Amino acid sequence: MIAALLLVAALAADPVAAPAPTATAAVAPIADTDLREFVAIAGRKVAGRPVNGPISSADKVLLIARDDKGFPVVAVSTGFPARQSLPAPPPNTLAVVRLRQRYETPVPGPSARDLAFVAAHRMPLFVIGEWARPAPMWEVAWVDGAVRFRTIGEVGEIGPWQD
Fold it and tell me: Cα(24)–Cα(26) distance, rounded to whole angstroms?
């Protein structure tokens, strides 16, 4: 509940205005190349920085949108409890980035909660691991009627889709 309130407060703090949605401007289930490259660079810059606030073991969450010129921007940056599922993102969000302090799976990668988020919202999610340098990164997306993920290299190069 507290996390949801923090997310609402962050959104009310005058996020970067994104263009108004149109009938053809639906969120793509797989991120565009420029979004992927933006997250690979901008998201990794945040890795390793402390999260301030009342949540002691928080993940960092970035909501990615486009500015009025069409360029990718970080619309919201906030801390979120590590063991909670992400809520539905606000309108005009094109992708979500979750920077995890530790990996929770037997092999580092997206968690079951990450996969469930993408299945529920059909929106790209990028997971960045803060436990290593360079920070590992995965893209989780809705591909061919299923949730799949792939690795993203340091400057946006992509690996094959995995189930």
Answer: 6
Q: What is the DSSP track for the chain?
A: -HHHHHHHHHHHS-PPPPPPP-TT-PPPSS--HHHHHHIIIIIHHHTTPPPPSS-TTEEEEEEEEE-TTS-EEEEEEEEEETTSPPPPPPTT--EEEEEESS--SSSSS--HHHHHHHHHH---EEEEETTSSSPPEEEEEEETTEEEEEEB-TTS-B---B-
**pLDDT tens digits along 89-139:** 999 999 999 998 887 777 788 999 999 999 999 999 999 998 888 889 999
Whole-prediction pTM:
0.80
Phi, psi of 135 (to 5 degrees): -65, 125
State the total domains in the chain: 1
Q: Contact 160/153 with Cβ under 8 angstroms?
A: no
For 39, the domain range is 2-151
